[in-house]
Amino acid sequence: MSTIGIILAIIGLIIYLLRPQLAEENVFEGEQKVRTKAPPFLLMFSKKMGAVIMGAGTTLALLPYLFFWADATEQYFLVYPTGNTSVVTSQGIKFRGFAKITPWQKYIDVKVVDDKGSKYGIEGVMKPIPIRFIDQVTATVYISCRFQLPLDEESFETLAIKFRSMSNLVNNTLIPTVREQTNNTGYMFAAQDYISGEAQSFRQTLDEQLKDGAYAVEKLENRDTVYADIQQANETRKIKEIQTSYSVNKILIDGVPKRISHEITENNIIVSQVIVDDVVLEGAFKERLEAQRDESAKRQLEQQKIETAKSSQQRILAEGERDKAAERVAQETEQVKQLIAIETKLKQEKTNKELAAIALETERLKSQQRKVAADAQAYENAKLVSAGLTPQEKAEWQYKTSVGVATEISKIQFPQTMITGGSQKGGTPLESLIGAAMAKQLLDSKGGFTQ
């Protein structure tokens, strides 16, 4: 735009200076032509129009130095001819005022890229970072980080003045700080712990150290005595082994980890993302891990065989106990059946005895009832006799008495065979018995009347 403006300004200036010298008609002095009429396309521009074109060109030439377009992905540091500075962090058309502009990207990507990886869109390209774990195992780390420039204008202005350009910030601050903190993080972990599940803690610790400063730590050496059992023919032997391990503890001040600031925290640069792409351990450690894995697999297999034999032994013992328990249960069941039969019989005998006692009591009560009824009847008869009877009642009484005596005699059972003897003056035995019975009844009747 500035080039076009300069060209228009020059054209306007030419028209402004040249237009008064152009003749609108041919000028003759006598018969001789003194001035020739200018071409029509030049005559169409006036002096005023030349001034307008010159002004427009000048404005277009100066416009990029007065205003600029601020992109959303960048923020700008401006230095004015007077020496004042300002910062632009928002997008849109902004007033420049002939200031010198230094653009800075808001987000800076720093990534470890090997020879085969793409470097497009990456401001800071790093080589693989070598680290050493606390157990002296070396490794190579591939990491990706994204940083954001300070959001407040004062911090950004200080950063822009301090580093002058974004490439200087990336190459001289961000990349060295990332490499340093990655090495410090490796020093806080053991390779054996890393492969045993501490990978997430490794990434988190690296992220915390980049965001808030490095941890102040102290190294501790631990020695543990381990006793391993060895199974032999008839005895178990123990082998004593001393294992040395190292650990790193954070130094705490009032319960808060002590921090050591670095360039990223001092310049208020925001760490928005930390990704550990890969940690490649050294070959010797991998071989040792494979050997440990094979030995561990063999040991586990032998232990499984031992456990299987123990399980078989326990199974046999359990089956024997099961069979004994089954036999015991069967015998106890038979005993219970016999006891139940005996108890049932005893209960039946007890019930029969109770029923017999109840029947006896019933008969006794019935006998008492009959006795009471007979006593009542006798009493009634005695009262009737004592009260005196009419001739008709006496005849009826004698009649009933005779019938009763006959009925009783009919009930007498005499022997089928009987041998008797007597004189010519006496009667037969039957006559004697009948006579005795009648005499007894008469005596009883007389006694009743007497009463």
Give a brief outline of the structure.
This protein has helices at 2-18, 40-43, 47-66, 153-163, 166-187, 191-212, 263-266, 283-387, 391-410, 429-450; strands spanning 27-29, 32-35, 67-70, 74-79, 85-88, 92-95, 100-105, 107-112, 124-126, 129-132, 138-148, 214-215, 217-231, 236-250, 252-253, 256-257, 259-260, 270-281. By secondary structure, it is α+β, with helices and mostly antiparallel strands. Strands 8, 9, 10, 11 and 18 form a five-stranded mixed sheet that branches. It has a three-stranded antiparallel sheet with strand order 5-4-7, with helices on one face. The protein has a two-stranded antiparallel ribbon with strand order 1-2.
Structure description:
Among the domains are: 1-70, no CATH class; 102-281, Tetrahydropterin Synthase, Chain A, CATH 3.30.479; 389-412 and 438-451, no CATH class. It is 55% helix and 23% strand. It has 10 helices and 18 strands. The strands form 7 sheets. Strands 8, 9, 10, 11 and 18 form a 5-stranded mixed sheet that branches. A 3-stranded antiparallel sheet has the order 5-4-7, covered by helices on one side. β15 and β16 (256-257) form a beta hairpin. The chain crosses the membrane at residues 49-68.
